[in-house]
Each structure stands twice: as structure tokens, then as C-alpha cells.
Design brief:
Order of helices and strands: EEEHEHEEHHH
Structural class: alpha+beta
Strand content: 25-35%
Distance between the termini: 52 Å
Largest sheet: 6 strands, antiparallel, barrel
Helix content: 25-40%
Number of strands: 6
Shape: globular
Strand order of the largest sheet: 1-2-3-6-5-4
Radius of gyration: 19 Å
Number of helices: 5
Length: 208
């Protein structure tokens, strides 16, 4: 089945920050913040580092849920593994966030391990590429939009631009380094409009 995820701001081959929820065979639920990539039609992909509860649950059940939310508290508690049961629906066989504006239920097709040699990462930990098929797509809030972190990088660079113009020395270098890092992220995860905006902004930085 073909799915149109543009209603929640998701476009093909771009990367979005969502909350991945899983459940193990004992019924214990877990949430974590992971990047999510829509590959087109009914196919998706995510990458998870070795050693996480999410990976273990996915390997065990071959299923996970992508929850679309921009709630900062949910992102924080999920990242530090402190999201309590009250945040989940009462379903006993699947982990879904109550307050997710939309969610996708994913059946796993393939789990492929990549070593640091295959996919260089700073902490030299194996990473798993997980491809899957969308089995359900539910929109509860028509205003729900998936979050692309490149936009945050652009906003930070815009804020820093006015400061960059009036400082010098180490502070100027700091803002320029932040610009370069945000540009790197945008090139990796964002759409063409965001990339174009960053190119325009980079030329503005170059004037000073």
C-alpha cells in the first residue's frame, strides 16, 4: 500500500526526529528518540545503536511504532529512559504514546548490522539499519508535524548571524564553527528550501 505522509510533514528520503516506542514479550514498554526516514510507498528505515532497549525489543518482536510529536518533555524523558507508563495508551500488545499527534505501526523486514568500519561513528559502536513496512498510519491531530532538526540549525544560525557581525576573535570563530556544523546537519537531513536558505545565510556571514 502507498502512504501519503506529507499530511504530517514527512517527505521521502529526509530524516525526521520522532519517538520510537517498542514492547517486549513481557509487556514492558520503552520509548526512545531516533531518526526516522521514509523511503517511499510503505517502506521506512531507522538506525539504532547496539545496546539499546529499543533494538533488543525490535529484534525480539519485529515491530515498533513511530510517534510524531514535538513535545519537549517526551523527547527528554525518552532520551534519558524515564518515560513512565502513564504516557502510553492502555494497549497491552503494542506501545503507543497517548499524546502523539500521529503514529505509524511498523513491521520489521530486515535488521542489518553495520560496524564502525562500514559506517564511521565517534564511539566505535555497531549500528543497526532497520528497514520495515508501514502497517498502519493514524492521524489524531491534523496539525501534527514531524520534526526535522535541520530547521533548528537554521534558526540558531539566523540568531547567531546578528551577533557574528558585532563580535571578533574567539567569539567570532565560535559562531562561524556553529554555522559550519549546522550547515553539515542541514546537508544531511533537510529539504532543498532549508539548504537554499543556509546557502544564502552563509554568504551573509562571508561579508564580515
Amino acid at each position: 500500500m502507498k502512504y501519503d505522509l506529507t499530511s504530517v510533514g514527512i517527505h521521502m528520503n529526509l530524516q525526521y526526529e520522532c519517538i520510537t516506542t517498542t514492547i517486549n514479550s513481557k509487556g514492558e514498554k520503552n520509548s526512545a528518540a531516533f531518526a526516522f526516514i521514509y523511503l517511499g510507498e510503505d517502506k521506512v528505515m531507522c538506525r539504532i545503536f547496539e545496546g539499546s532497549k529499543s533494538l533488543k525489543n525490535i529484534q525480539e518482536t519485529k515491530k515498533y511504532v513511530v510517534n510524531i510529536t514535538q513535545d519537549p518533555l517526551i523527547f527528554t524523558l525518552s532520551t534519558i529512559d524515564r518515560l513512565s507508563d502513564e504516557y502510553y495508551t492502555d494497549d497491552e500488545d503494542i506501545a503507543i504514546l497517548k499524546d502523539a499527534g500521529a503514529y505509524l505501526v511498523i513491521d520489521v523486514d530486515e535488521i542489518e548490522m553495520k560496524t564502525p568500519e562500514d559506517f564511521p561513528i565517534k564511539n566505535d559502536t555497531n549500528i543497526y539499519f532497520i528497514t520495515g513496512t508501514i502497517k498502519d498510519f493514524v492521524v489524531k491531530d491534523k496539525t501534527a508535524q514531524a520534526f526535522n532538526r535541520g530547521f533548528s540549525g537554521l534558526i540558531e544560525s539566523l540568531v547567531n548571524c546578528s551577533r557574528y557581525k558585532i563580535v571578533d576573535g574567539e567569539k567570532k570563530k565560535y559562531y562561524k564553527d556553529r554555522l559550519e556544523e549546522n550547515k553539515r546537519i542541514i546537508e544531511k537531513v533537510s529539504d532543498e528550501n532549508t539548504k537554499k536558505a543556509m546557502d544564502i545565510l552563509t554568504k551573509e556571514y562571508e561579508k564580515y
